[in-house]
Amino acid sequence: MAGENESILVKPIESEGELMQALAIREIVFIEEQSVPESMERDADDAQAFHVLAMEGKHAIGTGRLVMLPEAPKDETGSWGRVGRMAVLQSNRKGGTGSKLLTALEAEAKKRKLVGIMLHAQLSAMEFYKRHGYEPHGAVFEEAGMPHLEMKKKL
Ligand SMILES: CC(C)(COP(=O)(O)OP(=O)(O)OC[C@H]1O[C@@H](n2cnc3c(N)ncnc32)[C@H](O)[C@@H]1OP(=O)(O)O)[C@@H](O)C(=O)NCCC(=O)NCCS
């Protein structure tokens, strides 16, 4: 079952050093592994986002972020957030870390009284998000050189 690994702790990023660890994981996963252009990987949202870090002991193995959307997605109302930059180091995948990261981001979204979360899922990650209650909307589109789908979940 996803989420059963007790030795992995997910924490909010609280310092510049922890943000650097998150960006290092994203560099390995998105830029090196998935060949996302470096210019796209880091963006202006990083400064405002709520970031989380998954720790296995002293080692950071995963990250993700929640960004407040300035307006609700199409056909929706109220305050929405966007989850993104979900990344777990390859050798640590399929052990529930991604699920723990997503749960922590959703908990923060609920704390902020957001009514829903949207995201752009890589097709390869669609099943992962479906398992967490996200529903696909619209057609497949290309982003960062990979096929993506918009997905949404009401909280
Ligand atoms: C997407 C990603 C963050 C998921 O992280 P993860 O740590 O592998 O996530 P989990 O372990 O919680 O779940 C992944 C899968 O492993 C399975 N799993 C979880 N624990 C497991 C276990 N103990 N044994 C076997 N399978 C397990 C889950 O059922 C899940 O299956 P699904 O993909 O069919 O839903 C990770 O694959 C990743 O970093 N991918 C590359 C970057 C990327 O594509 N990011 C998403 C951009 S939209």
Task: Report on this structure.
The chain has helices spanning 16-33, 38-41, 97-111, 126-131; strands at 8-12, 50-56, 59-68, 80-88, 116-122, 135-143, 146-154. The chain has 155 residues and is of the alpha+beta class. The mean pLDDT is 95. The chain binds coenzyme A. Coenzyme A is lined by residues 2, 29, 86-88, 93-99, 121-122, 124-125, 127-128, 131.
Summarize the structure in short.
By secondary structure, this protein is an alpha+beta fold. The protein has four helices and seven strands.
**Uncertain ranges:** none
Structural class: alpha+beta
Number of strands: 7
**Overall pLDDT level:** 95
* Overall form: globular
Our Rg estimate from Cα atoms comes to 15 Å
Named at the architecture level, the CATH assignment is 3-Layer(aba) Sandwich
CATH superfamily label: Gcn5-related N-acetyltransferase (GNAT)
Give the helices and strands as they follow along the chain. EHHEEEHEHEE
How many structural domains?
A: 1
- Order of strands across the biggest sheet? 1-2-3-4-5-7-6
CATH top level label: Alpha Beta
Q: What is the percent of helical residues?
A: 25-40%
Strand count, sense and barrel status of the largest sheet are: 7 strands, mixed
Bound molecules: coenzyme A
CATH topology group = Aminopeptidase
Give the strand content. Answer: 35-45%
Count, helices: 4
Provide key terms for this protein.
alpha+beta; binds coenzyme A; 4 helices; seven-stranded mixed beta sheet; 155 residues
What's the helix and strand layout?
Blueprint: E1 8-12, H1 16-33, H2 38-41, E2 50-56, E3 59-68, E4 80-88, H3 97-111, E5 116-122, H4 126-131, E6 135-143, E7 146-154
Parallel strand pairs: 4-5
Antiparallel strand pairs: 1-2, 2-3, 3-4, 5-7, 6-7
Residues 2, 29, 86-88, 93-99, 121-122, 124-125, 127-128, 131 line the site of coenzyme A.
